[in-house]
Amino acid sequence: xxxxxxxxxxxxxxxxxxxxxxxxxxxxxxxxxxxxxxxxxxxxxxxxxxxxxxxxxxxxxxxxxxxxxxxxxxxxxxxxxxxxxxxxxxxxxxxxxxxxxxxxxxxxxxxxxxxxxxxxxxxxxxxxxxxxxxxxxxxxxxxxxxxxxxxxxxxxxxxxxxxxxxxxxx
Length: 170
Known about the structure:
- By secondary structure, the chain is mainly alpha-helical.
- It folds into 2 domains: 10-57, no CATH class; 63-158, Up-down Bundle (AhpD-like).
- It is 72% helix and 0% strand.
- The chain has 8 helices and no strands.
- The protein is elongated.
- It starts with 14 loop residues before the first helix and ends with a helix.
C-alpha cells in the first residue's frame, strides 16, 4: 500500500488538482501511478509529466537506446516499478535478452554499444559523475545533444525511482 493516497480518478481530485489531472490524462491517455501519487502537489505532477512526455515521446535517442537507459536506471536505483514497466519496452525496442539479464544482475555487458550506454548510466547513478573515458565513449556515440538527453533521461528516471521507492507506490 502506498504511503500517500493515490489520486487515480478525477473524482478523487480536489479542485486544485483537477487541471493537472486532466492535463496528465490528456497527454498519457490515463493516470499513471507516479503522477497519481505526485498530484498532492499538482504543479510537480504536471511538470514531471511534461518532462516525461518529452523524454518518452519527443526523443532524439532511438527507442532502443532510450529504453536501455531507462531499464538500467531502474535497476541501479532499485525501482521494481520502473523495471517492470520498461524491461518489456526495452525488449520490444530490440535490446537483447542477454543485455537485459546482465543489466538486471549488474553484470558485464557483452555488446559494445550497449556496454558504453550502461557504463554511462552506472557511473552517473553510482557517483553522480562520469569519468573521462566513459564520457568520451558516450560522446563518440551520441554527440553533445545526445549526451544532454541521455543525462536527462537518467535524471528523470532517478526522480521517478526515488519518488516511487520513498512513497512505496510500486
